[in-house]
Prior knowledge:
This protein has 19 helices and ten strands. It is mainly α and 537 residues long. It folds into two domains: 10-257 and 341-515, Serine Threonine Protein Phosphatase 5, Tetratricopeptide repeat (Alpha Horseshoe), CATH 1.25.40; 265-336, no CATH class. The strands form five sheets. It has a two-stranded antiparallel ribbon. A two-stranded antiparallel sheet has the order 2-3. The chain has a two-stranded antiparallel sheet with strand order 4-10. The chain is globular. The model is unreliable at 1-32 and 316-330 (pLDDT under 50).
Amino acid sequence: xxxxxxxxxxxxxxxxxxxxxxxxxxxxxxxxxxxxxxxxxxxxxxxxxxxxxxxxxxxxxxxxxxxxxxxxxxxxxxxxxxxxxxxxxxxxxxxxxxxxxxxxxxxxxxxxxxxxxxxxxxxxxxxxxxxxxxxxxxxxxxxxxxxxxxxxxxxxxxxxxxxxxxxxxxxxxxxxxxxxxxxxxxxxxxxxxxxxxxxxxxxxxxxxxxxxxxxxxxxxxxxxxxxxxxxxxxxxxxxxxxxxxxxxxxxxxxxxxxxxxxxxxxxxxxxxxxxxxxxxxxxxxxxxxxxxxxxxxxxxxxxxxxxxxxxxxxxxxxxxxxxxxxxxxxxxxxxxxxxxxxxxxxxxxxxxxxxxxxxxxxxxxxxxxxxxxxxxxxxxxxxxxxxxxxxxxxxxxxxxxxxxxxxxxxxxxxxxxxxxxxxxxxxxxxxxxxxxxxxxxxxxxxxxxxxxxxxxxxxxxxxxxxxxxxxxxxxxxxxxxxxxxxxxxxxxxxxxxxxxxxxxxxxxxxxxxxxxxxxxxxxxxxxxxxxxxxxxx
Length: 537
């Protein structure tokens, strides 16, 4: 990956939502036509990933996916801070969408920009998923049924399923557009995702189609789209969508929140699964991926703690002073592997960081195929594809760290030994889906946005069998005791400026809206219990 070189694009300091009509007016003395699509794309890639990560995602999705634990004693209770959780929505509607339309305008009808426009569209789809998979219905279509969000007009809320259909339609058009790359302009040094490899962009688009199609798998609405995309998706361990961090510039990713500030820690549920000791998913062997993800704690272990345990999800189950000995990684609990060149979170400040934002992978494509085989969408054996996906997860980690100087890989014999120790794949489809989804949860790490969505969609990893620990729930939580967080509330600003368009079931901002599921989640608009076993078949 290349080191980020983000230009000072003062001309792209976009207007607030109250000044959309002034969007094309430069306030800097720099003419708008001096901007280049590549430079704007670099901005939207970087800011779409990095802006205020801690408050956008670490204190929400990271915790809800049971990947991390909060050292601030806040989200472990499943409380919600609107001043934090509203940020991504705000930035998306006021900045990212404007950048999307600006790139399209700058490209115009020039056929040489066809691939640039397709990649811009694919990235916009990624960001849309982060809005609707977290919040639900959202402003998207205009009165004529055209995608118009970000163009400066107030829009009604569109149904998630309708937005999904349009996103798949757009991705299919992007795949077609990327079919002819002759004579195409590129992003120069600003494509931080795929370095102008149009075939990778095409594979990524197909993998996203599979993801979206499966999310609505219960209705089989997009089954044919899945089948078509499966022939052109990520297909080897070198296929991964990651944006490598540049820790030479300011950010609040894990180099800050974990290493510098001690605000976030490893999660006890994930570590127990990696250790092979989880009560609901016991293997008895250490997952070979653990060495890439984590290192043991360095401080004196607390009672009953092996230094490989994760931080208790319930903050009050131990005193903070008894758990955290000091800042800077001197912890009695397992740490993120930032200190070894083979670590998935390693960073050097030289532009080759393993520390990265994750958006898609070969193993995800294989897990999607395993589930598709289980549901009868495609031919093939679900268990065989499941095992291939686990191996792919292990292989792609080695491939990724080697690109920045790491040397470690997971030997085939170690992969086979781990797979042999797994709990039985299951006799019923429900049991088999559970096996697929628990391993998919591990493989997605640390892509918590996708992991949390998949947990809500299928209920796995589950609370009923104690794979996940149900946290203590405070009175100020967005859910009632016994239910889990299903969505992030709409921003307060929407209630202030667009209340008439907010779906009626969410008209009361103070209601327990966080336990009302997205339409594709396991129990739809109802609740998902932390005690009842999931039921998908």
